[in-house]
Design brief:
heterodimer, A: 315 residues, mainly alpha, MetI-like fold, 15 helices, B: 266 residues, globular
Chain lengths: 315, 266
Amino acid sequence: MASNSSSKLPRRWHLFDIAERNAAALWPKTMHRYSGYLLLVPAILLVFVLVLGLVYIGGYSLHELDLATYRLKETFSLTNYSAALTSTTYQSVVLRSIGASILVTFFTLLLAFPYAYLMVRARQAATKKFLLISLFLPFFIGQIVRAYGWLIILGQEGLINTLFAGLGLPAMDLIYNYPAVILGLVQYMLPFAVLLLAPAITAIGRDVELASESLGANWMRTFLHVVLPMAKPGLVGSSVVVFTLTLTDFAMPEILGGGTTDFIANAIYDGFFQLSNSGLGSALAMILVTLGTAFVVILFFLAGTGTLGFNGREQ
Amino acid sequence: MIGSRSKGVVLWTIVWFDLLLLSLPTLIIIGASFTSGDIVQFPPEGFSLKWYSKLWLLDDFKSAFLRTLYVSIICTLVSIPAGTLAAIGLARYRIRFHTTIQVYLLLPFTIPLVASGLGMMIFFGEIRILGQLWPVGLALCIINLPFMIWAVSAAVNGLDDQLENAAANCGAPPLQAFFTVTLPGVMPGVITGALLMFILAFNEFLVSLFLTDARTVTLPVSIYNSIRSVITPDLAAVSVVYIVIAFIAVLLLDKLVGLELFLKSK
């Protein structure tokens, strides 16, 4: 009778019972306080692959290339680092990357903030949706495709030069230079910045702005003294992402710069695959990791993790 | 909107400029793909679908497309359990070194992609899996994992933790509570994360450049290789495939969870 009635229970219940029994055998109650750690294991192992990769790169960077055999020497040395740090070529590559990161961060935030603000504050649902879709569509299209689009627009026979020709103006070299790379990067970073700014702007109540305006501040002063400071978590989050993504970018300088405006990542790639000097390339990679980490740590230390943290509140 | 007329004018001027900047490359590519001429030029020389029909005859394109699909699916399938469990672990359990683990799990974002790509190229080479396709999918999962954890974290934080207590009080053992209460509750986050992971993997270029060779090349890498030689309209047609997939993904995301989710304050 008992077995009869239990067989009428949904099959799912039986499956769950079996699963629970197995789980209890494998992971007894005494272990339950470690359950949280168990859940973290797959992610920690996956990320550990990157740590191992960095260890290998660090190891390579400490061995000088033997020009007789084109292999790395057995002996440890800091030759690669001194070569990388004293070379004027690499110095200018590093300065160019940092300069571009500052420029791109500045222009991207300048363009992204009004977008995020209007999107969050839009009264009409249709306006909001239009701005969201216009943002997500390019966000979901990768760097290579977008760079290709810019090639068609800015190229020798491209849209802009054709327009110039129609107006009787001479063709201009709009591609393979620094401004083209900056333009491509700003366009690429814009969705990242807006998406990291938007939650911070949402958190600012409309009433705060109203209060500021009813106390006599015009909108610019309200923006400068109320909205911008209160949007700090978003500004921090988007600055970190835009700055580091630009600092470490490869595709835009490669495609839109055409070899004239190498960033650090391009120098690393060339070190490995053109000079076949994996030691020097690795040293450059370690320098880039250090630069990027230093920037993130300094900014987090000064301003908190902003909208970047996983648990949603500023640490 | 609060504020005067001038505010609207200034802000909307910038936003219209943004919209132009955001959409111009996409629109131009679509336009260029329909040319009947043999080079990309403006205005396009006549209208035709010939570059699209040529696309289907290109074995290189088809196999690169299928490989890209394969690595993106692996990336998504690995990231769903890894990211979901990690997000729940971080949000729902008392974890020692909570901040340290959080910083550690953000490493894929803080380590430059070029270093991640090289490191995995060397490591995969050492354990002799370099040159196969599945490690590329795994690598794409690793470098984008924080997106998955992020998406699920947002959902877990928005879920009342008393729900799980209530389930336990009603006698649900751990697995049952997890599968019937926690998981459905965070589903919007899982869907958002999975879509992001797929689309990012589908577009990923730099790490794939390090991990693929001529036999395993994926679509973004092969587009990059073509850009370096000569720009023909068939490349525009390939790019339109990307635009269409991006569009489908945006519509799916909007339909399943609503894009407005991204505007919520944390």
